[in-house]
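quick one before i forget lol
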Amino acid sequence: MVVTPGQFVLALSCPDRPGIIRAVAGHLADAGCNVVDSQQFADPQTRRFFLRAQADPPDGLDLDVLRGSFAGVAHHFGMEWSIHDAAARPRVLIMVSRAGHCLNDLLFRWESGSLHAEVVGVVSNHEDLRPLAERHAVPFHHVPVPAGGRPAAEAALLGLVDSERVDLVVLARYMQVLSDGLCRELAGRAINIHHSFLPSFTGARPYHQAHERGVKLIGATAHYVTAELDEGPIIEQDVHRVDHASRPEDLVAAGQDVECLVLARAVRWHVEHRVMINGHRTVVFR
């Protein structure tokens, strides 16, 4: 996302009806704002309208003042909306277990500047990936989940979310099921990644199960976390073709590559305020 100093992002959804674009564009123009990018979508099934606009405000315009003046437009159309400073970097907490490919990819993208976020910590139920986090100078928090210890572990996680003012939690191959209560607490601000063999190959070693069945496509899905396991609104998916000569370890490697790409896209689109939940689905303004 190309950002010049002072730009903001307006994201909104509301029941679809005539006049929304005119009202929004007119209000921004009256405030002296110059819209540099705008995307919109009207869903004929849910009858909801979605819009994302990136704009330059006039010199001296405080975003809180703009939020206050826009509230009247939002109320008139029944909008769910937000205005964000485009230069602000959302604070991200990454959760992992023992597989480090997604963590390594996200940390590289963050450190190289291609991920518009601030990684404030890594949480894991194991110690394996502490050296990787520390190489990137990211705080590592070991939060074990022993038998019967999930409530305490989740309380510790929520404590970190609060103390670090976390905007997004990323489950980058975190292999623990979150409680319904924690899923509700993190609704709309937690993203998970998993292979796309579900429900055919569940449990341990899914790529080996897939190899035994002769699959030809390796895939991955990134979605928002909900209480319904692995059934939250999908943000991004992709696939990689394999063939009869592919060994189980080839499938694992291909799957890890796809998981990294899919998760990175989902996280980037979320922190750039490009994703809006539309019932059980999402609208993604790429």
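fyi The mean pLDDT is 95.
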